[in-house]
Automatic annotation (TrEMBL), chains A, B:
Name of protein: Adenine deaminase
Protein's UniProt keywords contain Manganese: yes
EC number: 3.5.4.2
Species for this entry: Candidatus Mediterraneibacter pullicola
Family membership noted in the UniProt record: Belongs to the metallo-dependent hydrolases superfamily. Adenine deaminase family.
CDD domains cross-referenced by the UniProt entry: AdeC
Pfam families assigned: Adenine_deam_C (PF13382), Amidohydro_1 (PF01979)
Amino acid sequence: MNHIIYKKLSDCALRREKADLVLKNARVVDVFTDAIYAADIAITEGRIAAVGSGYEGRQETDLGGKYVLPGFIDAHLHLESTMVTPNELISLAALCGTTTFIVDPHEAANVSGTDGIDYILDQTEHSPANVYVMMPSCVPATDFDDNGCILTADKMAPYLENPRVLGLGEVMNSPGVISGEPGLHAKLELFGGRILDGHAPSLSDEDLSAYVAAGIRTDHEASSYEYALKEARRGLHVHIREGSAAHNLKDIVNGIISDGICTENFSFCTDDKHVEDILRQGHIDHNIRTAIRLGIPPVQAVKMATINTARCYGLHHLGAIAPGRQADLITTDDINTLTILTVYHKGKRLDPAQTPVIRKCPDALKHTVRLEPVTSDIFRLPITKDEPHVIQLNPAQITTADVRRHFEKTENYIPSDGFCKVAALERHKGTGLTGIGICEGYSIRGGAVASSVSHDSHNIIVVGDNDADMAAAVNAVIRSQGGYSLACQGNVYDTLPLPVMGLMSEAGFHEVNKKLERMILQAHRMGVPEDIEPFITLSFLALPVILQLRVTPRGVLDTVNFRYIEY
Amino acid sequence: MNHIIYKKLSDCALRREKADLVLKNARVVDVFTDAIYAADIAITEGRIAAVGSGYEGRQETDLGGKYVLPGFIDAHLHLESTMVTPNELISLAALCGTTTFIVDPHEAANVSGTDGIDYILDQTEHSPANVYVMMPSCVPATDFDDNGCILTADKMAPYLENPRVLGLGEVMNSPGVISGEPGLHAKLELFGGRILDGHAPSLSDEDLSAYVAAGIRTDHEASSYEYALKEARRGLHVHIREGSAAHNLKDIVNGIISDGICTENFSFCTDDKHVEDILRQGHIDHNIRTAIRLGIPPVQAVKMATINTARCYGLHHLGAIAPGRQADLITTDDINTLTILTVYHKGKRLDPAQTPVIRKCPDALKHTVRLEPVTSDIFRLPITKDEPHVIQLNPAQITTADVRRHFEKTENYIPSDGFCKVAALERHKGTGLTGIGICEGYSIRGGAVASSVSHDSHNIIVVGDNDADMAAAVNAVIRSQGGYSLACQGNVYDTLPLPVMGLMSEAGFHEVNKKLERMILQAHRMGVPEDIEPFITLSFLALPVILQLRVTPRGVLDTVNFRYIEY
């Protein structure tokens, strides 16, 4: 700590100087002893100087016995997945009490490499919350990806100096870890002694042991209590995820309560939570409330969003109400229902009426769709096999099934009976690579949907029942330098531009949401089933780490046997 | 972790290779979930590869359902205070299950500076336990000390590179912290982000807040539950001390149980525990047993000696039984009485029959008493005041009282009626500084006791009822280049040489103890009361941080008002 700031803190603690702000008559939630006690909180220079009685401040707020909690921490999330710019999302979530965000900018890195990471760091430097970055470990996610950048250990090394970079982001390549793959282990070693975040869904007991032995410290992929317990026993810190798509909290928390195990090594995260869900139900506060409702004692639940996470990431200045810690504080009048009344960040009260600042993006990051306009003939798909493989969508899930269907042999397959063509077009390097396949269950009729958000490489993905609409939708995405587009009977119905790396809009949440709702409605009108979100479902159809068939710019990939499908 | 070692661990976890050792049929104490479960523990390359069933090893040991615990950690101790060489103490304590020692070599540093610290590091590098060093923060302890070395931040800086140096040792100078003293704050900043150990007995609420705000993270000086609670609430990790002299455990643990507070932020330490006490009652295992007997649930108590401490010091490879962690393990057949059956360090079973290795000390560190032989006239003490101050010993405590007594004015005071002269002779730099005073309560008749162990500067301290025996005892200590000496009616009764920095013997515990017992017996025969340990009491009479009068080479110091006494 700066020497001048320390002297101010010390003088305030010793009652030689008035505090900047005193929160009088607080009920302090003490995450160290699990007790709640009455005290004043003296704040100076954005930090807590003392928690005691009778402190005087230049400003004083009488809380009248309200509870004060440490600000909440989201242990793992991706800012770029929300389509709004980072500061906008953070500003909204901070009003729910999340004052610290541990983010993995791997979407940005897959498009723009370290420039994308710098964008996230720069955009969030003056946000009304603390934003820490985990360096994306798997860019590209697999050897089957055609993305915008290969992020090696060498490129990461300069970030070790950045105090806002805490460690290595979710290590998805568990086979690479376990087999000792040198490039990946170079990254583990580079961040040795720091925190290495994991991503380890459904590993066998043996694989999970080997994975943990490499020094991985956390995971947020446990979707059942049994799996979470298996992880906790191995020393992994389990981030219980409750976001827009993944709902893991209930099962894990019920198991914790039922077994009565210690919650010290559990935290909360959202991973991906969209603005509309944050506005509707809250952010990490929603995880805490849900855990309390299921039966976790309130202080324990609060700890899972505060000190447990701060300790896990070595954030000694956060996560508790104690001298020297940053004054990130929340007030509530009910420790069970946890209605957030006010939020303080660095001792300043956040103003819910203030519109989030949308910071401008460097121009280069708004020109990342490097692809010439296409014509419909690039979607030609000859059928030469008797019963080709078809990607069957699983409703309300991101996995797909690999099914065989009979089609007539032809020079160019023309979809009918609810089948669609789906294609991925490389968009980073102008290679012209285009992979095409057939899917079942999307069911759009007389049109096509295209997106530059397609995990994790974020090439352009398009689905449709005719080549002309597919080309129209793709060209609309190219014109807007990224976005979502819906084409309908030869015309572009609408386009949501996402020009920031092809992932985010600078138009603000309300504008984005208005357009998105209209496009989703139209897609459903055109035949996309109600239990399929047309854009999100599409954006996961390219992700090669998910079972069972995926479309990539090199063709349809069987992710069980890792081979390409022939038609 | 080394890549080749990782591959072996991974192959073992995946059952591709046999383990070096499998502990079959263990009851594993899981400090992450607070549960105990049945499993085999597969160990390879000194690390745990997996905890599961059916693992095969080149060596297998059937535990038949015995409990296996992680090796214990002593959170804070001084190796040099035990008179034996470091490896001897560690070897004995390791057999009690303490496999990790977090040591502060501030005695060695006060005598020999960084050479003393290097000695501790070198001596313990191949000990049968993990030894980590906290850099002594207060060398010298006060501005009133004449010690062997001034340890500045600059001199400490190279130690940041040493992976066995974890942070800054107990910061005793709390006024310096609170007032922002630049030299001290330079040390706090040097170790910023690492662990800063505290030493904060009896601070006011305000002072303690200011002290903690400087980033201090631990304290081991709490002697009551009330004080420990005050520390815990401020975010200090409380090391509960139970050693040879300090007995803080019962009061603190009873309070924890009574209030039902969380024990996550509590650990165990010994601070100073002598070999005879270790042989009689154990080491950290004694702390755990006592806590369990008082009512702490066994797994909680074990955590206070394992994972809590490992986490506090960032020792991610220790403190738990999980893949990748070091195989420091203990077996017991009763989790309540905790009789230690076997201890494994890095997967190797410690052999209780093996005599501890006594490693040789560099020659220079055996020549640290830089003082010419003295004659009895240096102990001349003229009395010019009516009622001079007298140092009154408090039986069984290290504090003293400041009392006034009437003596006749004289050219040289000659003790009688149970009074003694006490003197401190600077021994590091040959300055010839000698401070002399009068004490009450030591009561030796016809002799003198001298010691080169005198906290924290370790000058020569001597107490006696006549100048000739005082000179004889001091000269015996000078001849042996450090040690304890007892002179009796003009002759040296015996000397225990402590030639290693004037603090330690290379003769081994049994030799030291035999001689010490004989000398203590004789001192009591010569009038030293039974409730005063003649050498330890003497060794604390020079420590200027303890109330109320102390003898230093510059004279008798009033440690309340920090001024020297005149006779």
